[in-house]
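Hi support team,

I submitted a single chain yesterday and got back a structure, but I'm not sure I'm reading the token output correctly. Could someone confirm the output below corresponds to the sequence I sent? I've pasted both exactly as they appear in my results page.

Thanks,
R.
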Amino acid sequence: MNGAQSLIRTLVDSGVDVCFMNPGTSEMHFVAALDDVPEMRGVLALFEGVATGAADGFARMTSRPASVLLHLGPGLGNGIANLHNARRARTPLVNIVGDHAVDHLMLDAPLTSDIDALARTFSCWVHTSRASVDVAGDAANAVAAALSPPGQVATLILPADVSWGEANGPARAVAPSAATLPAESTIGELTRLLVGTKPASVAILLAGSACRVPELEAAARIAQRAAAKVLAETFPTRIERGAGRPPLERLAYLADFAGMQLDGVQHLILVGSAPPVSFFGYPGKDGRLTPQGCEVHVLTPPEGNHAGALEALADALGAPPDGFGVAELALPELPTGELSANTVCQAIGALMPEGAIVSDEGNTAGIYLTGYTAGAPPHDWLCLTGGAIGQGMPVATGAAIACPDRRVINIEADGSAMYTISSLWTQAREGLDVTTVILNNGSYNVLNMELDRVGAEKPGPLAKAMLDISGPRLDFASIAKGMGVPATRATTTDEFVAQLRASLGQDGPSLVEAMIPPGF
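Hi R., thanks for writing in. Yes, this is the structure output for that exact sequence:
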């Protein structure tokens, strides 16, 4: 057994049985070893950012890591944007980066780079295997590091000679660290706070894995008992929402609207979250969103046991185990008439199937979507956690591999789609049940909005041209067909409704391109 074989066998024995990859020469022994360990499913991506984003989507839906195989420093560089998103999502991910053999590394060949330095920008654990006999143990430690709360990217750098050298065999799985509960004194302090403050003066901010049903129900018990407000971070990793589940309002992206949501809040209780801040700095505006004079309390840090802590706080308050509010099943009517961002979102809300997984990168044109789907059948919602666009299509790909019995719906802005459009090829190759809806308005709308908000001088034609992608207008239906994905284009709402219904009813991937006007 060589090093690569012992590595893959250890990953599988540790519960990591999917590897998204875009390999090169230094990783060929890893690729060859796939036939020796058929339990490992290899998934090929044509771009590294697709592989890293897909691993993120897989982990969000399974709560266990996938692995990624990348080629040297340049390959890692191509995947960093979605590794950044994965870090912000706090998803477990084992990132394996091939490197030159040790005796070749000193020759400074053209692809030589500082992989360790690149990896440390997004990894909470980085290690280089130095010997073939060590690589299995290194792999087991990487999986344990990735699974340690709250979930993190663990990067294992794998020199080529470590892969081809003789190894002893696989290593046993290593247990990750456990999530911690808050001290009893913290529960007591917050209980007294919630009992002693006036209604609507307390908000609970949920983040990370605290947006799942057990946490939402415990938070709803607290809110009902203490008249507190419950909010989620702006772009949560995964929200379990829809009919029968407690509704959850997300903190707005725009600081002005977030300020309205937090107006009057005197105590902010953090569950897995840091104190909220605006995404960008603006002239003359404070980037901190916590109201002036508001006291911040930490129930759990990101690595804490959120469900256990919320349940303990609810029990300490004497909150009833049920009777809290849940969303009622309420579907919007099917729209008709002129196609717009609003009618696209309304149609999706009307037709969304039960158990759907939504990968949301609709950006400005998708602003209506959460409202129209609040009463949809139970579903999961995956957000753009780190703000680096090009996440939606890869995350949808990984989620579909994680949950092959569920329909994945990818709501995708046209500009963002072009970053990782080759995700469609992987979806076709793997036969994944993904419906992609492209919101084609020919514009970077969010940047047009930000251009005004940052107080820049009135833009002229050269500036406006940098935010306009209508010339030439992208033809996503043709692009998708060229990658093996059936696709249609809708120019009216009736066409879109018919095409979306057909897409949701067929096996495998398909794409519906909605031609909507620019603007908000």
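A quick pointer for reading it: The chain has 21 helices and 18 strands. Let us know if anything else looks off.

Best,
Support desk
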